[in-house]
């Protein structure tokens, strides 16, 4: 009997005559006698449920299925299941073997992000798991994605301005030879907005939408969103008060009894500084300075 033959079916995407196809490849059961293969293509219709798309019997160690935008669309998670049997004795068949699910479309890596309000840039890779076809003869051989951000809010608060910012509003996916599950890729950086507010951890999402695609396959497709959780960080404080006592951001304490205009703080990374003006407020008996003005850029 043919039992487990370790066929190890794997799905990859290919361009055939300018059209996107999925190819299911599996190991031939050599040195067995001549063997036929039953290949069943299916897609995830709902969590845990599969819908049959196509089946065929072939002597080849591969099977193709075209992504036509109707029967098989971008956004589908596709499987192929392969069973081997000897020609002439179809009742002697191997156990069916499943491929891993192949997601056809745009992927973000990582699929979710947790970042902090610390000004750091985090790289987000946008990739297509299917090749990008060139519908015309001109230089339209790319897919442009419009990126947008949205605040998801908290249970106690309505959504507000997005808590993240992107380095680009659009990315172009240009065709390149498929490697692994990537047939085109671009990167964008994500940074948390430092809002100086104690507003707790907040959720935002990044959405992508193809811009006026010429290829019919991309027209009705919306990629999955990326969820970004922004971790609130405590805001630093510095003080200048009474006859000015000063407490710095890192907790140092000293006094400044002078009269004049002084630089209280300056950022080393951006155009931000605070000046204070101090005047004599102690009268004739004691020389005391007090804050009388402040200017911030």
Automatic annotation (TrEMBL):
Alphabetic keyword roster: Disulfide bond, Signal
GO MF annotation terms: signaling receptor binding
Keyword Cell cycle among UniProt keywords: no
Residues in VWFD domain copies: 236-297
The keyword Oxidoreductase belongs to this UniProt entry's keyword annotation: no
Name by which UniProt lists this protein: VWDE protein
Origin species: Edolisoma coerulescens
Gene Ontology cellular component terms for the protein in this record: cell surface; extracellular region
